Amino acid sequence: MGGLNLEVFKFGIYILFPIASMYYFGTNLDSRFSVPDFWPSKEETHQIPFEKEEIRMELERLKKQRLQRRRERLEAEAKVNRERLVERE
């Protein structure tokens, strides 16, 4: 068998390995495991309007955007329909 020194060495490894791994993964996390620019800056995030005028302006902007997308979709569908009619003739 190994003897007392081997048992002391194994005990030391059993104790130090978890402590060393916790120390390695628990310190300096920002530089070791971070992804640069992962979270958007405050200017890039959505700003929630709180004032009545801001809410009205935001609703108008969303309505214009929705109508523009609808107009583009209808134009694309009309173009496809015209192409189908030409193919049939």
Summarize the structure.
This protein is mostly helical and 89 residues long.
Task: Describe, in plain words, how this protein is organized in 3D.
InterPro entries: Pet100 (IPR018625). Residues 50-84 form a coiled coil. This protein is mostly helical and 89 residues long. The protein folds into two domains: 1-34; 50-89. The protein has three helices and no strands.
Average of the residue pLDDT scores: 90
Low-confidence region ranges? none
For the CA atoms, what is the radius of gyration?
Answer: 32 Å
- Kindly, what is the distance between the CA atoms of the first and last residues, rounded to a whole number of angstroms? 95 Å
Helix content: over 70%
The count of β-strands is: 0
Helix/strand structural class:
mainly alpha
Percentage of β-strand residues: under 5%
Indicate how many domains the architecture comprises: 2
Which overall shape is indicated by the principal axes computed on the Cα atoms?
elongated
Q: What is the helix/strand order?
A: HHH
Work out the helix count: 3
Family: Belongs to the PET100 family.
InterPro entries: Pet100 (IPR018625)
Pfam families: Pet100
Keywords: Coiled coil, Membrane, Mitochondrion, Transit peptide, Transmembrane, Transmembrane helix
